[in-house]
Amino acid sequence: MTKFVSVIIPCFNVEDYVRDAISSVLAQTYMDFELILIDNNSTDGTLRILERAAIKSSRIRVMEQPIPGAP
Predict the structure, then answer these.
(1) Phi and psi of 8, rounded to 5°?
(2) CA distances to 43, 49, 50 from 35, in Å
(3) Which residues lie below 8 Å from residue 25, measured CB to CB, with a gap of 6+?
(4) 21, 38, 54, 71: which has the fewest C-beta neighbours closer than 10 Å?
(5) 3-state SS of the chain?
């Protein structure tokens, strides 16, 4: 029986690291998964990187979740 897996990565100002994290997940041999990237009001280029990754792979979904109390 095959199981579908959701991998969730919360992201906040990680533009220097998030590409490697995304690549690592996508490089897995198990293919029945989705990658959910949640941006928490990043002030750097993180959201732009996440959105570009989602364009390249149909397994990636991007969500924006503001941090409560953040400006």
Answers:
(1) -115, 125
(2) 22, 14, 11
(3) 7, 9, 33, 35
(4) 71
(5) CCCCEEEEEEECCCCCCHHHHHHHHHCCCCCCEEEEEEECCCCCCHHHHHHHHHHHCCCEEEEECCCCCCC
Closest among 57, 43, 50 to 19, alpha carbons compared: 50
Please give the residue that has the higher pLDDT: either 1 or 43: 43
pLDDT digits (tens, 9 = 90+) for 28-48: 998 899 999 999 999 999 999
By CB atoms closer than 10 A (0-12, 13-18, 19+), residue 31 is exposed
Return d(Cα 52, Cα 15) in angstroms, integer. 12
The model carries a pTM of 0.88
